[in-house]
Amino acid sequence: MTKKGTVLEGVHFMNGDVACAEGAIAAGCRFFAGYPITPATEIAEHLSQRMPEIGGIYIQMEDEIASMAAVIGASYAGLKAMTATSGPGFSLMQENIGLAVMTEAPCVVVDVMRGGPSTGQPTLPGQQDVMQAKWGSHGDYEIIALAPSSVQEAFDLTVEAFNLSEAFRVPTILLADEVVAHMWERVVIPPAEKIKRVNRKKPNAPPQEYMPFMPDDDLVPPMACFGEGFSFHATGLTHDEHGYPQTSSSEVQQRLVSRLCDKIRKNAEKIVRVQGVMLDDADVVVVAYGIVARAALSAVRKARERGIKVGLLRPITLWPFPEKHVAKIAEKAKAIVVPEMNCGQLVREVERAAKETPVVFLSKLGEDPHTPTEILEAIRRNGQ
Amino acid sequence: MPVRLWRTPLDIEKVKLPKAEIHIIKDQCNGCGYCIQYCPKKVLEESEEINARGVHPPRVVDEGKCIVCSFCTAVCPDFAIFVVEKQCEGGC
Amino acid sequence: MSTELVHPLSKYLRAAMMPHIWCSGCGNGIILNCFVQAIDELQMDLNRLVVVSGIGCIGRVAGYANTNSFHTTHGRPIAFATGVKLANPELEVVIISGDGDLFAIGGNHFIHAARRNLGVKVICANNFNYGMTGGQQGPTTPLEAFTTTTPYGNIEHPFNLVHLASASGATYVARWTTLHVRRLTQSIRKLLQKEGFSFIEVVSPCPEIYGRQNKMRTGLEMMEWFRRASVVEHFSDPAKAEITREKIVVGEFVDTEKPSYEKLLHEKIAQVGKEAGKWGEQGAS
User: Fold this and answer.
1) For C4-63, what is each residue's pLDDT tens digit?
2) Looking at chain C, which residue has its C-alpha nearest residue A229?
3) Which CATH class is domain A277-383?
4) Which of A226, A293, B57, C92 is an S-S bond match for C68, by CB 3.0 to 4.6 Å?
5) Residue A4: closest CA among chain C residues belongs to which residue?
6) Which residue from A328, A322, A221, A194 is spatially nearest to A270, judged by alpha carbons?
7) What's the CATH architecture for A10-194?
8) C 6-35 residues with CB below 8 A of A?
9) By the 8 A CB rule, do C202 and C178 touch?
């Protein structure tokens, strides 16, 4: 990349990691703290070059725990902030993701999923962190997770991740996989003025009346930042609307934790996005996400050519899970096929939402995502 | 430790030591005893009364002896005592 | 005496959260007192000040100081502060935390921030144990001391914090006890005006927990230890700055000049930006 501008407007041929980095810049991200880890390292390397060009901050921290903490700090100091990692680093970040949830710090965490568990297969894809994205930190909370299926989406969904995190003051996870991150595709980056950006709500009360955790009707509190004249306190301890710790009150715990969950649950309709292909008359529906959805789409088209009434439901938002969409297709479908590169993660949510409709799980681990033929076979077997 | 002077200062008659106003916020006191122990002039002692926190706050023995060193103010962990220099018309 | 006495420093304290939760004689209250005294003497712009604390009794200080403040997860205030300081170098970021938070779980963040010479200020309340959780051993627990997890006496050597800070690259390193209130306040003033990573270790009494387990059951006994054993040795070798029953070496150990990380970073950004030809939008637009 030699063009020295803010938004890299134009038509490009780039890989998913770079598209994600450019998406962050386009969304207004001006702080990145990270740690090298395959297959997300390119995001850090690209931003280490781009951030100084656009007046943003790049720092390589000493570990992923520090990276996540620094991201929250930068967010509280007023910048849109991001980090990028893979499975092992994502595990390290969990405690501080909980801190971001509890202090309602807008931020984006990119997890480029690879083969796990533990060190696993650093250079090969996986979809094994799906449940971890939702449940990884201790305590009860809701977060937002988006899964790109193409390099264009790696750009678009990063922008959307920032917008969602700012709108709902919640850490938003971009759950990519190693294939989407490393493959090269055509990306169209619109001009800056065409890119929708959402910024955190600012307080409309004067400093002496400002309560940092008093929500508006949408359950999201307006956010002041350090140095803006509002002298407030924020803590990871259970706190009241003033931000002061209230570690002995059941009532405050009930109020705070349910609001943090409801903030996402009650706004799910504004958050959840799916892509539906040929669902209207589908007897069999394939539910797939990430790189697997690309093979699934190909399989669905091939199956239609053979006369099987099959459709694809691609969750773009993995969390909150699109349960209403799945429930709807489950009403008419005779079977739901869920191919995943893991031992059964999102399929559990599908089963939960699909209730009585049979759900068939296709597991595949290792170097290659499912081939269209493998998915086509499953469609055929369950489409009779 | 008592103040040991090599000799009496020549201007000891002219220089006025500051006069103190010692303020004790009784219910803030947590009874650590640091102000009493480390006052260089032994101006404070533990009182008999019990405050809202269940401890004996300090009591001024002789405000006249206080030289406004403000050590008590600085060392109090509970912001329960502070000394100000008494402002009087034409000297105190 | 008036019925509504107002302490002269009370404007620096969050009235709604006082009185604080700290035990009788706890050094944390003295550290808070010296800290707000220092910012009062400097007439600091409180809007620019951010106090960050970690987990521990001292962690509550962020709630009591009437400034922008943040109470992070255990061990992470320095990493959090890194993000704050780089995002807005105009802010004065002060980390006030404990010996375990900063040097056990947080040790890695301490040495790297010092290595980078990031312009954040660190005040460590060193009370030789993990007080909040009941008095367990920590990285500064003296040899042979008793704690709830060293019931037979500690066999681990403690860190020498001023040695560690100086070796890691801090530009200002000092150690005082909570008895040295004037010099501590003076050091804090210096800390706040210094460029680069600055560190003060405050040897602090924990009479209820550490003291009680080690034959110093009251705050006064601990403070008497400080008074008897302290000796001021300015700019002596930090490696030899021991803390024992007989001797506590205090003073200023390091006071050097070195450009701060955020200064170098912003210079680099300006340089790259100039070469790039044009700036993008700054900050969260």
Assistant:
1) 789 999 999 999 999 999 999 999 999 999 999 999 999 999 999 999 999 999 999 999
2) C47
3) alpha beta
4) A226
5) C276
6) A322
7) 3-Layer(aba) Sandwich (3.40)
8) 14, 16-17
9) yes
